[in-house]
Specification:
The complex is a heterodimer. By secondary structure, chain A is of the alpha/beta class. Chain A contains 14 helices and 11 strands. Chain A has 2 domains: 150 residues, D-Maltodextrin-Binding Protein, domain 2 (3-Layer(aba) Sandwich); 159 residues, D-Maltodextrin-Binding Protein, domain 2, CATH 3.40.190. Chain A is 42% helix and 17% strand. In chain A, helix 2 links the parallel strand 1 and strand 2. In chain A, helix 8 runs parallel beside helix 14. Chain B is built from 24 helices and 2 strands. Classes of the chains: A alpha/beta, B mainly alpha. Chains A and B meet through helix 1, helix 2, strand 2, helix 3 and strand 7 of A and helix 6, helix 13, helix 17, helix 19 and helix 22 of B.
Amino acid sequence: MRRFSLPVILLLISCLAALPALACGGDDGGDSLTVITHDSFNLSEELIKQFESENHVTVKLLPKGDAGSMLTALILTKRNPEGDVAFGVDNTLLSRALDEGVFAAYTSPLTIKVPADLRGEGSNLVTPIDYGYVNFNYDIEALKKLNIEPPKKLEDLTDAKYRGLVVVENPASSSPGLAFLIATVDYFGESAYLNWWKAMRANDMKVVDGWETAYYTNFSLAGGSQPIVLSYATSPAFEQLFADPPRKDAPTANILVAKGVFRQVEYAGVLKGAKNEALARKFIDFLLSVPVQEDIPGQMAVYPVNQDAKVPEAFAAFSKVDVAPASVSAEAIAAKRDSWIEAWTKSVLR
Amino acid sequence: MDRSVDEKRPSLTARARERRPLLLVVPAGLLLAAFLAYPLQGILRESFQRDGGIGLLVEDTYYLERGWFTLWQATVSAALTLLLAVPLAWLLACHAFPGKRTIEAVLMVPFVLPTIVVAVAFSALVGPSGVANDLLTRIPGIEEPPIRILNTVWAILLAHVFYNVAVAGRIIATGWRGLDSRVEESAAMLGAGPAARFFLITLPALRNSLLAAASLVFLFCFTSFGVVLILGGPQFGTLETEIYRESLFLFRLPVAGALALAQLVVTFAAIVINARLQQATPQRTEARSTTPWDRKSAALGAAILALLLLLTAAPMAALVERSFHGGDGYTLRYYTMLDDNVRGQALFVAPIEAVRNSVVFALATVAVALPVGTLAAIGSVRARSTLAEALVQLPLGVSSVTLGLGFLVTMDQPPLNLRESPALVVIAHSLIAVPFVTRTVSARLRSLDPRLRDAAAMLGAGPARTFFAVEAPLLKGAIGVAAVLSFATSMGEFGATLLIARPEYPTIPVAIFRYLGQPGALNYGQALAMSTVLMAVTGSTFFLAERLVRVRTGGVS
């Protein structure tokens, strides 16, 4: 009996001690601004603190899973939003957010610093903050060992010498997967893109659920079997920046094919029903300001949209994109996205 | 007329008295009503209000195939897990060996690992350039890496066994310890060999524990999500991975809602069948003493242990090895850098903070789930209510994605305005932990000899006194196991909490995901280091819990 009660008492005491820590989860008083983001969002703490002190506000960053999860959460809570601003809806899924009326109109005065082609559709509702390119990367060392040249165009990848060497993400569960699927529609045309995918399947292309799996279990750089991975143009730069041990070059490089890469633009918007709309607008201006725009590349591996912002040297050295990306209109994406995914799933996965 | 009424009356009150223990199930019932039924109806109503997609379910055999695969892989996974869990239970219940507690703690660790970490661990061990293939290709004559299981159905099954074998083994061992060894001894005396004794006496006597373990593993694998998504790959899919894709990426909520309902129906049926098959089988009240080793059983024991360690500890060891393996030889760099916010990130997670949050959430979960689940077990076993027992198990069968979305749409106004409170995380964890507690405790309760209670009552003890003086000490071991299981559930849960996690309290899995989300060897190394921290923290907690609760196993000191 005594031995039975001792652990229970200990347990209860430790839990009681834990409760106050849990109870004070609410507001710490004063004005606060909640920013809903996806898991990949990050910024320098220093910049956030600066915004807080300039506006006498506490900023709360609220990550809601990946980009798809975040958008679903935004839509389901639109009658009583969890935050004031949302960051991270991209041009592949934007139409869904616009159709559901998640955002309130706002055009930042700093938008004039953003090139016109990045502003895109729904520009009075959302503001572009950054962009990146989705394309294939290859493991330089691994291809050299196999004595294979990196491909010059997407068609090359169906060649027998690339058999089993390519890994892509499922467009029905991954942002870069979906982005690249849209690029292939433009590159091959609506009537032919599925043929290329079928040929890729016949050539033993691997499909995985998401970027983390592709990059950290399938990609040869992390010990996997595939030296060619669907990732981002900035990945080689990050491989150099975060190399271990430090190195001057990058272990990977981009495969850049005109119209065969997708330019992914990420937007921010004031949420309809925001409790603090004025500050939400200010936060969007803040995201577009040069210091934040120059912070973004190193934090999130994307390019700033503000023309005045400088990018890290590694980006220019290892992640320069000098080809035209696929051009698919926002209307086409909105109208056909779901049927492209459906058709892809049927021909590649089943 | 009067007479017949009078005759009925005592039977009515007798029935009422029989039902009275159900009051003990009320806390669990309230938890379920407020945090399972209410959010589920909220999200389902919201889902079915939207149009589109539902026709797909009938016109396309795809979903039916996925449903079939779900059932198939869950059954096979449960069978394979049991095949290894029974030998493990035999080791744990019947024998003493050096390092038993440590091994027990190590075997439990996989249960809390995020799937992506398990994927990385498997790839470090059996991937094309993993340790195993590396060794095998050194054998002359083997050129290509011979082990290729990633992205096959074997990876799914293997991972399910990896995750569940220790939990199943423990549940069975708890029952095994209560078996009366005298029956086996008499059989031996009468000339029954070890195989006959095992198959004809021990296995049938373990019926309840085997069923409890099998159905638990079945439920886990039926609602399996990360393993199928990540290790299997998109060519495989369970109902849960389809629900995930449909609701979080394709945004076809009616399809997701219908699939979630289908999943609920199947899992509830499995739960009820399991509860029906459970029988009251009184067992010995004092723990059985461990059997001394003879040469044969020692060899068998060593072989079983080696196999289990190869399956569970080897992938983890490969992961740990990699976390120390820098580009230029062995290093502690990934660990020392964990505490260093190099990029000055606003969402930086300091490891010590993540560890503290994870442990606090887990302890709070134990504090909620242990009393609620134990009471529910006592109540439903006493009232002999299969339905009550089955209902408490329901959270195990609910789609965690659907439940998470349900929290989002319903927990945003009084009286349950909890969307911004970390208490909701604890509640979500508890919801999933309660079934474990109830299951473990009720299995033990059923095995108690009812004559014990009768004797206590005869001697004048009230129900409360009977419980605390007679039964509670006998339930000690089961409650200890229940506490460890609910702690582990909380440390590893991130399905339902994905959408309600609070950024103020990042946990260890959150920290791991931060690093795995970006390219670069340093980020990868730090993710592995953080995973090692998670394994170390949970492993040592299990070890400590074991000491604290002291599951008495006879000969072990």
